[in-house]
Amino acid sequence: MVEDVELREPREDEVLVDLQFGGINPVDTYMAKGTVLPDAPMPRTLGSEASGTAEGGAVLVSGQGVGSVRDGVWAQAAIVPREAVHDIPDGVDHRAAAAMGVAGLTAWNVVHDLGKVTVDDRVLVLGASGGVGTMIVSLAAAAGRLCGGRPAIKPRRS
Prior knowledge:
- The chain has helices at residues 26-33, 94-114, 131-142, and strands at 14-22, 49-54, 57-62, 77-81, 85-87.
- By secondary structure, the chain is an alpha+beta fold.
- The chain folds into two domains: 14-101, Medium-chain alcohol dehydrogenases, catalytic domain (Quinone Oxidoreductase, Chain A, domain 1, Alpha-Beta Complex), CATH 3.90.180; 117-158, no CATH class.
- Helix 2 packs across helix 3.
- Residues 147-156 have low confidence and may be disordered.
């Protein structure tokens, strides 16, 4: 059911996000079926990941109980914990950010923030067939950083 609701003012530790695209995480389907947190507050808005704008910048919303123990982000706007709001890097559009969700954010942080990978590094991804690992491979390859700056897989020419 779709219902119009008035949002209250955000508290000091919260942010109002104007949402543009919502991702669909497997946990969202579990929440809808009631197999995860069946005693969570009802009614509630589902959606644990989305992109939008907050305080003038592009953001990804994920974590901090969004869509499970508090209303989620399958809406036009939501008040979310400040800690659930992550800046979207320049050049990444809202649709892509929502599709990548928390797995993409984790992969980005591993390659760029935690690993601080440079073109002189070799990147070995254990578990490269998993959700985060697959994205780490893609991000490293896009940056030309696999195998010391040479792509590990050459693109197929048609």
